[in-house]
Amino acid sequence: MEKRTVLVSGASIAGPALAFWLHRFGFDVTIVERAEELRLGGQNIDVRDEAQKVVQLMGLEDEIRAANTGELGIRFVDVNNHTLAEFPKTNGGFGTAELEILRGDLAQVFFNATKDNIPYIFGDQILALVEAEDKVNVTFKNSTPRSFDLVIAADGIRSSTRKLIFGDEPVIKYIGVYCSYLTIPRIDSDTSWAYWYNAPESRVLNLRPDNVGTTRASFSFLSPEKGYEKLSLQEQKGILKQKFADAGWQAPRLLQGLEESKDVYFDSISQVKAPRWTNGRCAMVGDAAYCPTPMSGMGASLSIVGAYVLAGELSRHQNHQDAFEAYEKLMRPYVEDIQNLPPGVPWLAHPKTKFGIKVFNTVLGIASSKLVKKIAKLFGGKGKKEIKERIQLPYYNK
After folding, report:
1. What is the pTM of this model?
2. Domain FAD-binding, which positions (predicted)?
C-alpha cells in the first residue's frame, strides 16, 4: 500500500514531535518552516506528566535530561534580594519541573531525532491550500506546488496556516498580561535558582538559569488589551522602559539587557480557543490549536501529547476523518482542563499594591515553610505520591 503523505507546517516542538510519530507509523512526512534555519532561541520550558511518558516512548528522555537547565527551583525575593519563599524542583504542577529545558534545546533534540528520515524545507511557507477529493493542493511561497493527503498546522499561536484552514473561527483570547523574554549575561550573584520579584503596579521580574552560561530573564505586567504585540520592537522596548524604570531590584540590569540582547521577544499572553481542530483533510496541533499560555507551564507538554495522539489515531484509522474525530474526542477534555487556569490567575501573581505584595509573599512563605511541608508529609502517606493522570494515553502499536 502506498504511504499516506503528510505536510506539517512548523519546526519547533509540535511539528517535529508529530513528524517523529507519523514516520514511525509509516507515513511519508515533510516539514515546512518559515525560518531560514532551526530556531534555537527561547526560554525555559517543562516536559511534565504525560508528556514525559511520551518522550520515554520516543527514547529521548535521556537526551532531554542531559540538556537540562540545571534549575534547582524558584525563589521569591524582595527588593533587597532577600528570599521570602523557596520551592525546590519537583515533578508536580508548580515551579521547576524534573525535565526543565530551553525551548531551542528541545527543538534541537526533536530535530536530531527526525532529520535523517524526514525532509525539512526551511525558509518557506504555505500560501494557499485547496482541498480536492483525495488530496490537498499546496501553494508555497518559494517551492513548487505539491499535493499531500493531509496538511497539519503546527506553527504556533500566531499560525498563518491555521488562518488558511479555519479563517477567523479560532479565537486568540488575551488573559490580561503582557510579557517580554530576553537573554542577558550571567553575573556572580546569579545562581542555579530561578528568581521571582514583584513590584507595585502589578509588575513582575523573573530570572532563570540556563545551561549555556547566560541568564534568561522576563518582564511581565497586567494591562488591558492595547495591541502592544503589534508594535515595532523599538516601541515595545520603550513601553518596557517606561513601565519598569522605577521597579527596583534588578530592573536596571534587565532594562540594559533590552539594548544588548539579540533575542528580545514581546507578546500578549493569550490562549487559543478553537471550536474544532480539524477541517476536511487539514488539522492543527500544539499552540496553533490550543495554546494554554506560558502561565500554565504546560504548553510544550500539551504539544508533545497532542502530537502523539494525533499521529497515533491516524495510524489506527485508514479514514482520516475517523482519526481526526478520535483525536478531538481524546484531547479536548485534557486541553480544556489545562486551559482552565486556577482562580485568580494571573492577577494573584501580579499584586498591585505594596500591601498586596506583602500578603502574596507571606502566603508563599507559609506554603514553603518546613513546618507545612512536614505536615503535608504526615497526611500524604509514605512514598512518592503519583500525580493524577488527566488523560489516559493509548498505546499505539504499529
Report:
1. 0.90
2. 5-336
